[in-house]
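I would like you to help me understand the sequence and structure tokens below and explain how sequence relates to structure.
___
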Amino acid sequence: MLARVFRSEPSSSIAASARLINTRFFHHRVAHEGTVSKRLPFEGESLRLRRVSHYIKSLDDAIGLFDYMVQSRHLYSAVDFNKLMGVIVRMNRPDVVISLYQKMELLPDNIPIDFYSFNILIKCFCSCRELYFALSTLGKINKLGFQPDVVTFNTLIHGLCLQDRISEALALLDRMGEEGRLHQPNRLTYGAIVNGMCQMGDTDSALDLLRKMEESRIKPHTAIYNSIIDRFCKDGQHGDAQNLFTEMQGKGVFPNVITYSCMIHGYCRYGRWSDAERLLRDMIERQISPNVFTFNTLIYSFVNEGKFSEAQELYEEMLSRGIVPNVVTYSSIINGLCKRDRLDDAKHMFDLMATKGCSPDVVTFTTLIDGCCRAKRVDGGVELLREMSRRGLVPDTFTYNTLIHGFCQLGDLNAAQDLLNEMISHGLRPNIVTHSIMLHGFCVNGKPEMAWKLFKAMQKSNMDLDIRTYNIIIHGMCKANNVDEAWNLFTNLPLSGLEPGVQTYSILISAFAKAGNFSRADYIYMEMLRKGIVPNTVTYTSMVDGLCKQNRLDEAKEMFDSMANNRCSPNEVTFTTLINGYCKAEKVYDGMELACEMYQRGIVVDSITYRTLIDGFFRVGDFNGALDIVEEMISSGLCPDTNTFYSMLVGLCSKEAQKAVALFENLWKSVDHQLEDG
């Protein structure tokens, strides 16, 4: 790293920098008896290097100047070298500073190093996460007769907290209190430890330290309250966050844009929209302007909750306030548009980013790729994947998973496998989600053998398979009519350390009910209840279906009615299943009552329900009732499909051929009109 910077002659700019850096107006030297001037903490005060920085345009310039100063070291003091090191620190190259100080120490005639040099060095070690050397430097300060000041301790404490070494940071805090007035902790000291505790989720200790700070008559600043409030909000402790928010204002510490943004973010995460909007209004009334983070929090949350119109309003408000959207803003809006099946608008927003000087990142690309897959335009997603590579962006596992899932949904398993191979060739390791997507793809596309082979390979690879993976393969085996294998997988779940959930039980109950083995379905259902697992709509629907197939309609109706007791609402499938049971038992009028109940509950009656009722009326010979259902179906905007036509014509032809011909003509006209209108 240093070899390239050794030069025999300095450039004119380096010489000019050297002349500037030798001036004496920057800061005082080390005070008598190894103490330090109070004016010059390393943190928080400019080293006034602007004039030097004017000549130093790059790291090469800085190292060239260092080399020049070393060659003429009798002209320069420790203060002068410190000024140069400060410039390099501002370039965010602490590793270079460490190397240069090490070189200074190795020179045969020592270059003077003062107390400020050690503070700079400690900061650089902490930035490089080399805490052992940072703490060793503290020992060296003491050995050379210097006294570390509050900045030394604060820098070390900050570095320890960044690595979650809170107990050691607290030990340094205690030491500061014991070593005299030069080491007394200040707000920065407490703030670093409080923030570290909050990052680890230890809000109790953070609050205790806040109280200790107040007892020491050090007034906490807004940033300390922000750290604790933010942690409370992330942990869902909104009451504690609100109490601390109120407390800080009562003590004369006023919230800023970060405080409000943390509170708003916490409320949004837990769907408390009215509280979030109330805080936003309060914030604006206090003339605290929301920043891009505040708006991003709200936009992201509204999009995820399906409140896209509100998200769009916030985006427009953001623009009207002159706040420039960033990549997070655009990604959220693109996500919202994709979720509303507005892929073309999403692409327009994507293109708009470039005109505004905002480059899409991996998340933005993946979001739009997901939109393409939702719209079954997976080839467009692949084009975006190639565009990512052209722009130097590396797709991640989630990007590939999105596309693989898209191809599996289209039934193009070969393309999905090709992408999986490409993913591996690029050094990305497929995760449990990747394999589960492929497993599901094989199962739903009629490839149970491939699914079983992949599942066995997953087991042999010692991959941590979760219950969702087992649910996929159990459902796949059931769909392939291999219910016995599904049952074996289910019974062996405890051996894998897994407990079946409601979805697992529901899959098996449905499979055994459809296979005519209702006794096994009923056994699984009772076992589920015994374990305290609450049935869901799918469970109840499967049980209703099994009971109807057994012609146990009264029990099926009891099961249907019991859903309300467990706060589980039947859906259109549940209703249609029971209606079908009634119709096959020639109790079509009971089925009609259920259809009316569907309508009253606001559940949309679909074409399957209508066709079920039509079949039911024909079973009992009520042709007029069947015709009434057809007319109702057409008036509700549903177009009778081929199966409905077939049911009607077969039913009528068996009795009244003329009515069948007339019905066919009328239905054809109705369908023709609907096609013209839509």
